[in-house]
Amino acid sequence: MTxxxxxxxxxxxxxxxxxxxxxxxxxxQQPEGEGDPSKDIAEPAAEPFSSTPEAIDNCKPIVLxxxxxxxxxxxxxxxVEALVLKGxxxxxxxxxxxxxxxxxxxxxxxxxxxxxxxxxxGATAFQISGTPVDCVSLAVSGALFSWSKPMxxxxxxxxxxxxxxxxxxxxxxxxxxxxxxCGVPSLSISLNWKKDESQETDFKDAVEVCLPxxxxxxxxxxxxxxxxxxxxxxxxxxxxxxxxxFKLTKQSMWRSTPNWLAVSSSRYxxxxxxxxxxxxxxxxxxxxxxxxxxxxxxxxxxxxKNLEIVESIGAAGKSSSGVKKYFRLEFLDKEHKDxxxxxxxxxxxxxxxAVTPLSLSPHVETDIETSASDWISAALQxxx
Length: 384
Prior knowledge:
Number of strands: 11
Largest sheet: 9 strands, mixed
Radius of gyration: 27 Å
Order of helices and strands: HHHEHEEEHEHHEHEEEHHEHEH
Strand order of the largest sheet: 3-4-2-1-5-6-7-11-8
Helix content: 25-40%
Mean pLDDT: 78
């Protein structure tokens, strides 16, 4: 059924006749090979995602690369270049527009996420106005790319380690975790970046170190021998090419000490407090910038909703004046007394490439479960 005939029940006969006549005239003027002119009126063409069409070689496995450092990260650039250079993968990229390093496993809700095409030679790439988890979730949903699931998701290479409890903050680890939640094997990769010691070319060396593991993962996924119940977090030492080899490790309890400092609003302008800090500091600063951006986006809601908010505030008699205090968060390194060489951060600091399997299992160790059970029983008995 043509688009014109579909409108016959909705339009007056005279208008339909005039429309048909107009379309016939347009078709006579249109060069041959342009297609059915009626479709130009009935179904306006959707705006394309990318200036270049996707070309998928079905003989090559699809590899999706994401990260938490953003589109301009050298770790992303060197990794994608290496994967493309091999010529045996279909490489796709879906990364945040800006640094989302400490976003954890957060997602964007009730706000529109923008996907913009990006130029990365040899790869189909998009930058997303969201978190690493948004990037992976969108990429494997089938809404952005023509395929639904890649063979492997690689999250990284991140600037700074994600050992121990920092995995809970880490956006790069969250990207790999989200892939596993979606049923896709994944790796998260970080470089143990150190101020005044590391340089951007270290990311190229880090790629050289982890590329054999990436190739092996894809090979074994095809053979169905790659672990299905976990993803691998790979921590590369500060001097990648001087590493002592790969070491299977366990997630440690390691964490830097959080230190909140009261600061002057005149000395540190709003939303710029941690812009020049190193380590985890700038990652957490990004959370503040993200919150500001989210607030700005919410102000773009409908006029009716804005009016209701203004009326509500006015009715409550609230005032914008009040006490405002400003604080800056720093993470300070501290000494750790753990002696187990199989822990991630100890292996990393000793020069090994630490590979830690991370599971989605809700399993709780027996002694913890027993302790919690005893406490709950005692608490309920005391309340009776």
